[in-house]
Amino acid sequence: MELKWLLYVALLALGTLAVQAHDMDDDNDGDDVVDIEDDLDDGIEEVEESKPGTSSPPAPKVTYRAPVPTGEVYFVESFDKGTLDGWILSKAKKDDTDDEISKYDGKWEVQDMKDTKLPGDKGLVLVTRAKHHAISSKLSKPFVFDTKPLIIQYEVNFQNGIECGGAYVKLLSKTPELNLDQFHDKTPYTIMFGPDKCGEDYKLHFIFRHKNPKTGKYEEKHAKRPDADLKTYFTDKKTHLYTLVLNPDNSFEILVDQTVVNSGNLLNDMSPPVNPPREIEDPNDQKPEDWDERPKIPDPDAVKPDDWDEDAPAKIPDENAVKPEGWLDDEPEYVADPDAEKPEDWDEDMDGEWEAPQIANPKCEAAPGCGTWQRPMIDNPNYKGKWKPPMIDNVNYQGIWKPRKIPNPDFFEDLEPFKMTPFSAVGLELWSMTSDIFFDNFIICTERAVADDWANDGWGLKKAADGAAEPGGWEMWQRETKQRECQKLLTYFSLPYSLLELARLPTISEPSPPRAAVKQKGTKPAVRQRLLSPLLQRELGPPCPHTTSLPFG
């Protein structure tokens, strides 16, 4: 009896783990396919009823619904009110620049995206090209780096492609001097994050400004370049989702479209490193005059052989060569053009005596050659060149000299670089040679689930709408969603059935019933199939993809 119940508990635990595994798979699948079916229930309408004989249902119409944050946020902006309320345009001028282009007079507008599949979904658009643009907005409260992660996420669409320009954001440091209507390129920021491109150099910046605890000065720290190919994000004219996750343990992740493209640690993967070296080379140390860095030297005892002829030429005439038959010795290679005429405006006093231009001698075309014949040159077998003594190991070799190491007077150790300068505003300070860069759905928060929900309701909706508009795109999205839900339900229904089957097993103390009796007890497989199939079909519609029968019985 005890063995039976131990098996019962073990199976229940395994089933629970299986269900959790499916849920975790769904969460991880968000890297590739956004799970937004629940959010789309109220926003999808069938365009027309399926007609008999058609191979697939018509693509639905995806309607837009403004995203709403599902948890605590420091900043959100979807621009769906159609205004720039809460945003401040900079009135600053850029230093060290010609007056004609020094002003931040680039134009910003709230617009629908070009060729949008979601009418009503508005965003912030950098309208003008070849201008300095700067716009910013205050957070609901300053972000202080303490015990919670930082997540910054937003969308970008290079609607006209991008020639040279950026689409990165700056998280502006909380300082008494911060004045958003004077926001410019030298305004202190804590983090700079986002895409940037010029020529064929495609970048995804993550830069933070680290404060030196000894000097109080700030230094930019740049994340290593992603291994992923970023070109598509700049050229495909689709909306892409950019996410930066910073954790209190100093780890970070950079995601594009919910797929990790770069990750690392603030202590190990930034350039220059956060912490300076403990020792440095002594700047006052000098190499001794007698320090010998030559690993090899000419053999001082070597003597040039007596038969070494340094004057012998490298090339000599080939004495075995014979002049080709038919060679025209008396004909020059080039002759004056007999058809050329002196120009009427030729002034011999000014231009000198006129001479007809030279052309190839037509008589030489059929001959092996014209002019004086000369023997071809060949390598001289006796050539040795200038004699040099052979090289031997230098017995006095001391290696390459390096200055001695001394303690670094500027050394410090910051083991918590995550605790950066608090920031209180988000800003876009950009120059672009391409117009109509579309920004949307900014969020700054501390919980990954909140950022993911916001992404599903915003970028995920755009992705679903784009997929529905592409041939076969909607059907593919439906199949992927249905397959995941099918796996969940099969797990849910198989677990209680397996427990029922286990409960019917005889205990150790009970004699086993005859085989025929066991087969007759309980619900028959065909009955279970009929009972469970309608339930699954009510949940999912047609039978699960790649599933011809249920795995019960």
Automatic annotation (TrEMBL):
Membrane topology term: Single-pass type I membrane protein
UniProt GO cellular component terms: endoplasmic reticulum membrane; melanosome membrane; mitochondrial membrane
Gene Ontology terms describing biological process: ERAD pathway; protein folding
Chain intervals with Acidic residues compositional bias: 327-350
Top-rank lineage group of the source organism: Eukaryota
Biased amino acid composition, Basic and acidic residues: 278-322
Region of interest (Disordered), ranges: 265-350
PROSITE patterns named among the record's database cross-references: CALRETICULIN_1, CALRETICULIN_2, CALRETICULIN_REPEAT
Gene3D superfamilies for the chain: 2.60.120.200, Calreticulin/calnexin, P domain (2.10.250.10)
Cystine connections: 164-198
Subcellular compartments: Endoplasmic reticulum membrane; Melanosome membrane; Mitochondrion membrane
Keywords from the UniProt entry: Acetylation, Calcium, Chaperone, Disulfide bond, Endoplasmic reticulum, Lectin, Lipoprotein, Membrane, Metal-binding, Mitochondrion, Palmitate, Phosphoprotein, Repeat, Signal, Transmembrane, Transmembrane helix, Ubl conjugation
An example Gene Ontology molecular-function term: calcium ion binding
InterPro entries given in the database record: Calret/calnex, Calret/calnex_CS, Calreticulin/calnexin_P_dom_sf, ConA-like_dom_sf
Signal peptide per UniProt: 1-21
Function field: Calcium-binding protein that interacts with newly synthesized monoglucosylated glycoproteins in the endoplasmic reticulum. It may act in assisting protein assembly and/or in the retention within the ER of unassembled protein subunits. It seems to play a major role in the quality control apparatus of the ER by the retention of incorrectly folded proteins. Associated with partial T-cell antigen receptor complexes that escape the ER of immature thymocytes, it may function as a signaling complex regulating thymocyte maturation.
Family membership noted in the UniProt record: Belongs to the calreticulin family.
Protein name: Calnexin
